[in-house]
Amino acid sequence: MNTTLRDQERRTGWWLLTPALLLLLLVYAYPIARSFGLSLVTQNLGTELQPVFAGLDNYSRMALDGRFWQTIGNTVFFTVVSVILELLLGLGIALVLNQAFPSRGAVRTIALLPWALPTALIATTWTWIFNDQFGVWNDILLRLGLIQTGVNWLGDPNWAMWTVIAADVWKTTPFIAILLLAGLQSIPPDLYEAHALDGATRWQSFYRITLPLLLPQILIAGLFRFAQAFGVFDLVQVMTGGGPGGATETVSLYIYATIMRYLDFGYGAALVVVTFVILSLAVALATWGLARLRAVRAIGEPR
Amino acid sequence: MAAVLNLRSWLSRRRYLVGLAILCCTAVVLGNLVAWPQPPIRLTMLTSALDAEQGRSLVAAFEAKNPDIKIDVIEGPTGSNAIEDLYTTSFLLGGSPYDLVMMDVVWLPKFAAAGWLLDLTDQIPAADLADFMPADLDGGRYNGKLYRLPIRSDAQLLFYRQDWLEQAGIQPPETFDDLIAASQQLQQAGTTKWGYVWQGRQFEGLTAVFVDVLAGYGGFWVNPKTLEVGLDRPEAVEAVQFLRRTIEQGVSPPGVSNYQHEDARRLFQAGEAAFMHNWPYAYPLSNADDSPIKGKFAIKTMVHAPGLTSAACLGGWGLGVAKSTAHPEAALRVAQFYASPEAQRLSSLENGYLPTRRSLYSDSEIVAKYPYFPSMMGVVEKAVLRPPIAQYAQASDILQRYLSAAITNRMDAEAAMMAAATETRALLARN
Amino acid sequence: MTLVQKDAPLDVVPPRRWGLAVAVGLLLIFSLAPILWQVLTSLKTNADIAAVPNVYFPRQLTLEHYIELFRRRPFLRYMLNSAFVASVSTLLCLLIGTPAAYALARLRLPGERFILAGVLIVTLFPYILLFLGLLELVRTFGLANTYLALIVPYTAMNLPLTILVMRSFFQQLPRDLEDSAKIDGYNTGQMLWQILLPLTLPALVTTGILAFIAAWNEFIFALTFITRESMKTVPVAVAQLSGTAVFEIPYGALAAATVVGTLPLVILVLLFQRRIVQGLTAGAVKG
């Protein structure tokens, strides 16, 4: 009797789950699996868009492809710098939003705003703000006397990447701030009070209590942002298109160009596979670190 | 009684049907005689915003002559790369909204190889092609088949300040060394701030400049027949070193490595440079009434190495017919109209574009307006086509990357060209 | 004050209040300045936009850029496209995701942990890795330039979040709820419809808003699978608007487009800030 009820429950469960799983398989698993298959053929304009089996040619070609390595370098730089900046700034914003002050709800709403707005539209906003001739950012810096002539923020290879990072930080810091704020709110206030009674300064209590207890949230937020930043597309595509001179070209832009501009499907698929593998390794590493941290936490703290 | 009534009504219905049939027949006959207004065929094409704006009178002229066809011009972005990408995406997806394809000369091999264009070889009688300049026609061919009718030609030139050269008693330069020497002489005399401006930004314009210089040194990029790559030959390295030398010797401004066409034109037009490498579009602009250098400059082909001749990089646009169109005949009529003497004359007079038909270079009205046109014919006829290979976009991007690296001193010229050659060979080997 | 605000960790000392005010001020400027600048730009005349040094407050207000937007481009059409695609995919996503979440929360299935881990990991992969495979599907099924080409991927891309958020809501509901409903004679369908649904409505709204925002903002699929002007969504249409004007700087029209295109989302955030925060934290942290 009991087993039949369990069976029935299971059967219902699978029925409820199947549509979602099928859709996820179709939209996530199939394209990735398909890319693995396509990466073993040459299918481009040279073959009149017909697939020709090529073994691992696409991968060996990648080793000699200077542009691929440059885009990987750009992507890693963009990801690491923007995620670190976002975590620092996000933590600061979370700490501020966790304080008591009048109309805090309204401020939280406003702080959330950048996250909700379409990246492609925001990218045009920043392109305008950083315009070399008419941009307001140059105007402000000129008025403050910080620069003598307008800087070509998006046209100068030395500045373009930093400019794109600035726009990304603005756009996605609220997301991190929200996650960290939730973490802050879950720290029991009596911990601080006890610590303060022991004569600890605010900095010490931040360092000893806030930061360690917030670490899981920081890691989770960092992981999410890492994965998203690694695949950044719309922001860069709209702001610089990868220029000037490939200075802001990330691996996703290169993949897009390889497929949609060069019609080099086999090689594009190989790029997809390699990016997928790199990301998977990074995610596995981070998840492992998170699990270890939780394990240590579970032993270290009796609560 | 009822039966009679039924009969009568049947009769009347029959009469009614017959009447209707007669009416229909008359309508059809009449319609054929007086061109019964049918809904016109709508054809769509995508062009840059500038072309959409400048092409209005062409559309109007065509529609006035062909009331059965309407042309919807979709206004795309200004950058020609962006237009190429929009066309590519829509053809790749299938169900393309475009019937006509307005193409730059360098996109054609890709579009043709991908099978997106209608083969026009047998659609157009050979006699109709006789007036076109062979270089422009070749730009519309892939593997011997014609896919595009040339509607506008283009060849890169050297603009120079005739007034300054005459003042200083310098002959217009013929060789690369002449160009640098003349620039330095004018700069030292305080006549001009900069000698020679060109396009050094990592984009197609840099490729085009390099193609000119490379031709002047007698080198080649990719041989379209053998697919041999010539980028690591001494001539190519020399060509890069020349471009680099212009910056190192102060002949070109350091910012030239980030210049596009308009940056160069602004400087030249403001009287801050003696020589400019650019397309003919700059001529009418720099010679406009509000230009400070109106009437003070002249054009010639790019300089070359001693003992060799120069060749200009060929540009130009044309119209092709999408294979997926539902109205190939109508689309072909549009393409033929745009390539016709009448339409090209209009676009030359209105916008200063070079025609692709020989006869127009001696057209009195055009010559009266643009006295330099007759001399352009020789330039276009000798112009070199960038390699008509299907993977052109990729090959050009490889070249641009390494040229830019060499120009900005991030790489040694020789190492850069070796790497470019290796990557280009790898690209072409995958056939 | 500190008594009322229960999540203030420490007593507030007057000198710190001053620092706090500065911090809040900076935060407001940081979050709002770019948006306000765009609003100002959209209301300036072209002369003011191109003025050097910059004109901060329009010397003359104009709506010409907004009028231009709707007159020269089918902007209303873009908005409707975005709204339609985002709404339909959101509804579908809730319809498919909620039962799945319920199954994962309640009906101890074998391999549940793997499915959950899979769903979680899927959220980490950027869309650029998917578009090549999807492009082929779109071509094979002839979906180019149809709403379906966007609705299907959008539904799928919002599924993981929906499943995670809804699952954590279901887990918070007392388990006896369903049991007592069954004892009271409700069958499963009635139980779901009459008891569970009203209870989960707030969670559905939360997830729905998140899904709607994500679908409205999506770029790469919309850029690739739609090429017909009349089918384009707002982000792609605006991105392609840049650089279309020939004789003037297009930033007035661009700014107006940004303002109009973001307005629905600004309204959503203003109305549902609390729910969005709840949803994000439930999806990311508890998952």
Mean pLDDT of chain B: 88
Please state how the strands of the largest beta sheet of chain B are arranged side by side: 2-1-3-11-6
Q: Count every beta strand of chain A, where a strand is a DSSP E run of 2 or more residues.
A: 2
Low-confidence stretches of chain B: 1-5
Helix content of chain A: over 70%
Q: Which structural class do you get from the secondary structure elements of chain B?
A: alpha/beta
CATH structural architecture of the largest domain in chain B: 3-Layer(aba) Sandwich
The CATH topology of the largest domain in chain B is given as D-Maltodextrin-Binding Protein, domain 2
Instruction: Please list the strands of the largest sheet of chain A in the order they lie side by side.
Output: 1-2
Would you give an account of this structure?
The complex is a heterotrimer of chains A (303), B (431) and C (287). With 303 residues, chain A is an all-alpha fold. Chain A contains twelve helices and two strands. Chain A has a single domain (39-300), classed as MetI-like fold, CATH 1.10.3720. Chain A has a two-stranded antiparallel ribbon with strand order 1-2. Chain B has 431 residues and is α/β, with parallel strands linked by helices. Chain B has two domains: 41-153 and 315-382, Periplasmic binding protein-like II (D-Maltodextrin-Binding Protein, domain 2); 157-311 and 391-429, 3-Layer(aba) Sandwich (D-Maltodextrin-Binding Protein, domain 2), CATH 3.40.190.10. In chain B, 49% of the residues lie in helices and 14% in strands. Chain B has helices spanning 2-34, 49-54, 56-65, 80-93, 108-113, 126-129, 134-138, 162-168, 176-188, 204-216, 234-248, 261-269, 282-286, 328-339, 341-351, 364-369, 373-382, 392-407, 413-429; strands at residues 41-48, 69-76, 100-104, 141-142, 145-146, 149-155, 157-161, 194-197, 273-278, 297-300, 314-321. Chain C is mainly α and 287 residues long. Chain C has two domains: 14-66, no CATH class; 68-286, MetI-like (MetI-like fold), CATH 1.10.3720.10. In chain C, helix 3 packs across helix 12 and helix 4 crosses helix 9 (188-217). The radius of gyration of chain C is 24 Å and the shape is globular. The model of chain C is unreliable at 1-10 (pLDDT under 50). Chains in contact: A-B, A-C, B-C. The interface between A and C is large, with 103 and 103 residues.
